[in-house]
Amino acid sequence: MGQVNDNVRAGLLQSGGLSSLAVGVWLRELHTETRHYIADIGQSDRTNMDALVSALRGFGDEVVLLDLRSSMAAVASDLLKYRARHDGGYWNTTGAARLVLVSEVAPLMRADGCRMLTHGCVGGGNDQRRFARYGPRIAPELPVIEPWTDPQALERFPDRETMLKAVAEHGLPLDPGSGAERSTDANLAGISHESAELEDLATPVTRLQPRWSRWPEQAPAEPQTVTVTFRDGRVADVNGSGPNPVAWMTRANDIGARHGVWLRDVVERRIIGTVCRGIYEAPGLELLERAWTRILQASLDAASRELYDRLAAGLGAAMYEARWLEPAARAARDAIDRLVGEISGSVTLSVHRGIARVEGMTVDSRVVQQTRFGSGGNRWSSGLEGESDA
């Protein structure tokens, strides 16, 4: 990875979190010309981002605000279709966001005259390695700078308390989920929660402060009926949202969050070979997964479902490890496209206090449904004329 060069313009992926704001302060102190790229990927209210833009411009830096919600929603659709999940079944929303950011922003940085891509992800973490892998593949001529591996940056900011003091002194507003003691990484597909307290395996998950969602016991007393429609292997509607992925992802998030369907508390294997606790909030994908699973059950024969599950496990690892663009992951997606690309149908769910229960479904399936009681109760019938099993 490259080193900061104060003679060229740096493009900084600015999330508004504590560490990336501290990187902005550090670059300013080095007199490095910096252009902040703030991507709206559905992580926060737009007023928060507008306030950050105003503060950074008042700080004296250039700022670009990008609406990448459509790109984020498209990748969220991929996460569902390919069931790209990691340990404990949690959705790879953070890894997916890194793919979106580098794919969409790195080319723009080049066009704007930036000669470095900088981020605020901590040294030794998964995200540092994700940027290190996606950057050279997508923008090989744009060195990726890792400030939190730079001895100068670590000397200037040895801990998060020092970061917070500097950010506050410059009047830069923090993302609502960030602070000295905790951080969240949010996007339209979901949120990861981190803190020293939550990393302790003895800490009950109920110490978490959800960013979007309610705990099941706080959810409405009455259940809500939700109908999810699939067309050609992808979500096409959630309770009247229409086919736009931003619209149906937003609708699914709202419903899942309101009714307490959102949580994964896991101990995950990390890219560097360690394990760490992770707590994830993905109400929309958790809700939609219930419907997609039922569609798969009714639409794939045994061999196809076994292959789908094996390919999905590989794609979960590929998204987690930032190998989504590599040939093996492309081939796995092509294979799943062949398996599920023609699947259409709808599933009705009853959502109530953390549970999403299937109420009914319709599906266009080439897999024959076998019945017994529909044939009199004394034999199995495939429903095909002249064929039955004793």
From TrEMBL:
Residues 183-364 form the Arginosuccinate synthase C-terminal domain. Residues 13-172 form the Arginosuccinate synthase-like N-terminal domain. Coiled coil: none annotated. GO terms for molecular function: argininosuccinate synthase activity; ATP binding. Pathway: Amino-acid biosynthesis; L-arginine biosynthesis; L-arginine from L-ornithine and carbamoyl phosphate: step 2/3. InterPro entries: Arginosuc_syn_C (IPR048268), Arginosuc_syn_N (IPR048267), Arginosuc_synth (IPR001518), AS_cat/multimer_dom_body (IPR024074), Rossmann-like_a/b/a_fold (IPR014729). It holds the Pfam family Arginosuc_syn_C. This is argininosuccinate synthase. It comes from Nonomuraea glycinis. The lineage of its organism: Bacteria, Bacillati, Actinomycetota, Actinomycetes, Streptosporangiales.
